[in-house]
């Protein structure tokens, strides 16, 4: 038996050469490198918390027929993507702990195949999560700028086709990523995808904030109160937007910075210091799956009401 697989995406650690692309051995790192050690127990706890949160969101949206709308379908799929991330992390952590304890005995080939399957699942759920974050932003943008035509533009059938396309594209792209991890073009595509989602969300939400401030200004002028309402409203909106985009960048940015450095300077000592904290970057992505329900689901009064009903039914 070989040692249990390290916690990395299979496309980045399936072989020794791939591991070297991620990080240098410890004796090649600089003396000033800061390495944050992440215990397997933390992965397990965070994964379980995310699992519970996202299961509640999916259950609430499925239970309440009033929530069977395109907007909530995207939120449900986002929760499902985060749920898959959590399940994959919990499953991987459990297998690693069982292998380390000697409870689970199997061949290295089976362990590698299982690791690849889990990595495809993790990678596809990450890609789909980013896609649904972008889809939610587009949906909200259309609801604000094309209010009267929203229900004719964003129909349930169109949203279902978009959801199916996202899931298929996520599975195919993650499979290609795992298969062709050695090709720089694959990493560049992932990096470009993240940047595109970041720019898309930033542009749409900033434009929505500008429209909301303009609308508040118009209302204030009608009531002859030009300063207090717009200023407070816009400051609150700007703070909310900063938090939303800040959390997105903080949780996903380090992982894609890691991939960027893998492409630009795989052997540089400074870059190797970053590579040593890969597990920390994965923890941040799990934290994003914990925060997503708080931002996109639990703020909805109808979802909160349905959640109370679900919890009351479970307690009876």
From TrEMBL:
It is a multi-pass membrane protein. The lineage of its organism: Eukaryota, Metazoa, Chordata, Craniata, Vertebrata. InterPro entries: GPCR_Rhodpsn, GPCR_Rhodpsn_7TM, Melcrt_ACTH_rcpt, MSH_rcpt. It comes from the Eukaryota. The keyword Transmembrane helix applies. It is found in: Cell membrane. The gene is MC1R. The keyword Cell membrane applies. The chain crosses the membrane at residues 42-62, 69-98, 118-142, 162-179, 185-206, 233-257, 277-298. Gene3D superfamilies: Rhodopsin 7-helix transmembrane proteins. Keywords: Cell membrane, G-protein coupled receptor, Glycoprotein, Membrane, Receptor, Transducer, Transmembrane, Transmembrane helix. Residues 53-296 form the G-protein coupled receptors family 1 profile domain. One of its GO terms (cellular component) is plasma membrane. Interacts with MGRN1, but does not undergo MGRN1-mediated ubiquitination; this interaction competes with GNAS-binding and thus inhibits agonist-induced cAMP production. Interacts with OPN3; the interaction results in a decrease in MC1R-mediated cAMP signaling and ultimately a decrease in melanin production in melanocytes. Belongs to the G-protein coupled receptor 1 family. GO terms for molecular function: melanocyte-stimulating hormone receptor activity. GO terms for biological process: regulation of gene expression. This is Melanocyte-stimulating hormone receptor. It holds the Pfam family 7tm_1. Receptor for MSH (alpha, beta and gamma) and ACTH. The activity of this receptor is mediated by G proteins which activate adenylate cyclase. Mediates melanogenesis, the production of eumelanin (black/brown) and phaeomelanin (red/yellow), via regulation of cAMP signaling in melanocytes.
